[in-house]
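Subject: for your reference before the review

Hello V.,

The reviewers asked for a structural picture of the protein, and I figured it would be easier to keep everything in one thread rather than splitting it across files. Below is the amino acid sequence we used in the manuscript, unchanged from the supplementary table.
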Amino acid sequence: MTPQLSALQRRLNIAESRPGEDWLVLVENVPEWPSTASPQATTTHADHPGAPFGYAPSQGHPRLTEALVKREHEVSASRLVDESHVLVTAGGMHAVGLVLRDLAARGFRKAVHTTPVFCGVYDSMRAAGMRAKALQLTGTAQDLALLEGEFTEPTVVYVNLPHNPTGEVLRHEYVEVLRALAARPDVHVVYDAVYDSFDFGPDRCPTPVDLAVEERGLTIVNSVSKNYGRPGDRVGWIVTAQEHIARLVPRLEWEAVAVNGRAQLDAVAAIDRGNTELVEGVRAGRAAALDHARTTGRAQPLPAGGTQLWLDLGVADIERFADFALERHHLVLTTSANYVPVVRGHIRFPTGIPAERMRRALTALHEALDDWCTHDAEGKVAHVGSR
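And here is what came back from the structure prediction:
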């Protein structure tokens, strides 16, 4: 069966095919660097003239693995991680897929995940030959009993905190749940930390990097894309026990040889520069969303973390509404079709955009909803996929 473009990509294609029109594209949850920020750190060609003409080491450029270790010491309060626990990958999704393929080779045929989960992660589980199952996890100690009922065979537990799309964050009590899971020989936890710079809770719990170093049943994946606002670099990383790194490096070499050396050195510059302005930009977007809700009387609680709002629009057919908003209001939206299972009536709305665009976008969204309520949408708008 020929793969089909997602509804999101079809909507983007329509907007791109009509460049003369004023579109509000709200599909991405990669935060944008504020326009007032100093230029983003990027090395020049003169800084690494040989990078395009040779392979970087398969485990990662030594300057980048050193920068990542320093980053985890500072951001994740790690005391144990060193370069032997780090592997550079071609982005966060490559890291997830690489780990899942390795686990499948080790006999893991089942994966469980919270609901909803990004469809790319679900597809990676299936592509690795695993049966994927959604669970209503709460992020509390109660999850342990629920999960233990699933361990009838070697099982992968996928955890994403801060969570895409709900914005739930890691709680201190949950570290003990992760510790109990990681100690089991029949369980491996894949902890996706690609949003770990964006925990805005009052009692932030760092990503459990040292637990991944100490226990053989936990692997952490991360990415420059979200945490440093640089998705074009396609640079991610894995932190796990040294024995897993020793096995993953030849797998990465076999699959891709190495990650682009120039991109790795650009990532070094970005990490050295830091992401304070990027995080503050997301804070400003969140504040603008909250202020807009107060001004308009439309209640919208903020999640504890992440770079998006997970909005329940109260619309029965969210795909039809998204097509309606596209054609009549020039809004390009990400719906719950990007997640598994699909959650009725929801869209993902970015908070990592400038405050002015945030206010404009929320106003346009509410106008589209009001318009939707006064029209017979069932008869007046066709699905993008049927065009």
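For the response letter, the relevant points are probably these. The mean pLDDT is 91. The two ends are 20 Å apart (CA to CA).

Happy to draft the paragraph if you're swamped.

O.
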